[in-house]
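Journal club side-thread
Mid-discussion, someone asked how the predicted structure for our own chain would compare to the paper's figures. Pasting it here so we can look after the session.
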Amino acid sequence: QVQLVESGGGSVQAGGSLKLSCTASRIIFSTYAMGWYRQVPGRQRELVAIMSSGGITQYADSVKGRFTIFRDNAKNMVSLQMNSLKPEDTAVYYCVVRRGLDYWGQGTQVTVSS
C-alpha cells in the first residue's frame, strides 16, 4: 500500500513563505506523477501544482510565479515552495501521487494571515 507523509504546513503572515514536503514509500516513485492539491471547507479540492514522471509541470493560475514544485526521485520526495503567500492560499494541502489511480496524503494545514 502506498504511504505518503507530508510535512511543512503552518501559519505565516501574508507575503511570507512556506515549504511543504511529501515523502512516498512502497512505490517506484519515478514512474508516478506527483503534486499538490488544496481544499477549503465547503469547496472542491483544487489542483495547486503537479509534475509528471517526465518532469512536465502544471500550476494553477492563482499560484503561477509564486509557487514552485520540485521532486527528488532519489529521496522519493516532492516539495512545494510557496512564496508571496496570500490569505486566499489558506487551505489544507494534500500531496497526491498518480499513475492511473490517485493516492493521497493526510493533508497539512496552511494558514496565511493578513
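Post-session note: Residues 48 and 61 are 9 Å apart (CA to CA).
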